[in-house]
Structure formats: structure tokens, C-alpha cells
Amino acid sequence: MRLLKGLFFLIVFLVAVFAGVGWFLPDRVEVERDIVIDRPPAEVFALLDGFGRFNEWSPWRDYDATATYEYAGPARGVGAIMRWRGDAGEGSQEIVAMEPPNSITVKLDFGTDGVATSHYLLRPAGAGTRLVWRFEFDAEGHLVSRWFNLLLDRMIGPDYERGLADLKVLAESQPAEVAPPPAEEAPQEPMEGEAAEAGEEAAAGDGAEEAPAEASTEGDAG
């Protein structure tokens, strides 16, 4: 009987600690990783503004061999959607905002596991790009989710690092875009025919001085 009572009070104590501490844990959590890619922002942005090439660098592409993918909306830009379904779960991601070539915001819907937001932030770094991949989640007051937030960095941080490394390899393996050379100014062709003669006459007229009027040699009649 004492053992049962002790177990009961232990459970009550643990629940109280769980609820009490959880009350003070933050709702919002961010996980962020970054990498420098030896390509300008516009070229890196072109790999992220749609989902057509996402599985070429996604850190989760090999996690579920049964996963199938479906695409909706435009191929690129706001409204582009990618849905997945497999033994490991299902969900979707949708581009909801962008500012080329500086940022892309993606809404992540994990179904019963909640909704989160992902950001790609691109900034020039010399001749390349510093890319920040940020994950944001709001527990919205749920105690279990607040405790879960404490583990997020260790859970998905390594995945973000692997994804960024693979994206770097993909971006840098592509031929660099070469800007066309500036157009040379065409040489001015010499004037021909009447236009040339008119130009010569005008030049001669500008340099000649006006001759003085000839004095009269006749005297007055007397």
C-alpha cells in the first residue's frame, strides 16, 4: 500500500513539475543554420523559388522510400505547392511570400503535428551568397509542444546543415552565368556627297572674315 501511495505522489509531483515548468517555457522557437555558396544570390534564389529541384538537395529525400510527391499551383513563385505522403507521414509546403533575390517564406503544414514557417534569407558575401535557412514554430500555449521545442534544434539542426551542404554542391556544380560584354559604340561614318560639301562650306564660312566695303573714288559734282 505504501508503494502505491509513493508511486501516486511521485506521479502527481512529476505532473506538477511538467505543468509548472512548461508554463514558463516560450511558445516560439527558431532553428537556424547558414552557409556561404560560391554563386551570386540570383543564381541561388533560382534553386529555391519553386519545388521542382527540392529533392535534389533536400535532407529528407532518403528518409522514406515510400513517399510520393504532388505539385500544385505555379511552378515558381508565390502559390507554388509541394505535397508529400508516405509511411513516415504526410504534409505540404507552400511559398507564401518572396522578395527576389533576398528572401522566400514557406508555410509548412504537417497535418496533426501542426504548422510551421520556413525562411530562406540570401545576402551577398563577396562574389557569393550567405544563405540562412530558418525554421520557426509556435506552440500556441500547448505544454507538450513547449517541452518539444527544447529538442527541436538538436532534432532538425543536423538536417538543415546537411541540406545546405547538398544545396551548395548543387549550386556550385552548375555553370556560372557570364554577363555579356558591354556593347561597343559604333564608329561614326564620314559624311558623303552633298552633306559633306555643305559641312565644308559651313566650316569655311565660319573662319572667313567679312571683307571691308570699297571706298568711293568719285568726288562731289560742282
From TrEMBL:
The chain crosses the membrane at residues 7-25. Residues 191-200 have a biased composition (Acidic residues). Residues 173-222 are annotated as: Disordered. The keyword Nucleotide-binding does not apply. Keywords: Membrane, Transmembrane, Transmembrane helix. It holds the Pfam family Polyketide_cyc2. This is SRPBCC family protein. It comes from Pseudomarimonas salicorniae. The lineage of its organism: Bacteria, Pseudomonadati, Pseudomonadota, Gammaproteobacteria, Lysobacterales.
